[in-house]
Amino acid sequence: MTTLSLLRKVFDNGYISTWRFAKTFDGQFVATSNRGERKHFATIDNMRDCADAFIGFGYHERTKVAAPVKVEKTEEATA
User: Fold this and answer.
1) What separation in angstroms does the CA of 33 have from each of 18, 46, 68?
2) pLDDT of residue 39
3) Run of H or E residues at 56
4) What is the pTM of this model?
């Protein structure tokens, strides 16, 4: 799963709510909470609209993660 956005909100009682918006390896768009709740979206635009609504409810974006980068192994230089 590739995280696209991580939103958090701290409530007055100290509880921290976290929602992770992501794209699964099979191409689905989902949001998962730290309490195990899950929302599914038909398109990335639907997911962005939901994330924008959460921001309107006082959630703050904690990270923006770029697409995964393929790293090729290189031979270490020997001295």
Assistant:
1) 6, 17, 22
2) 96
3) helix 44-56
4) 0.73
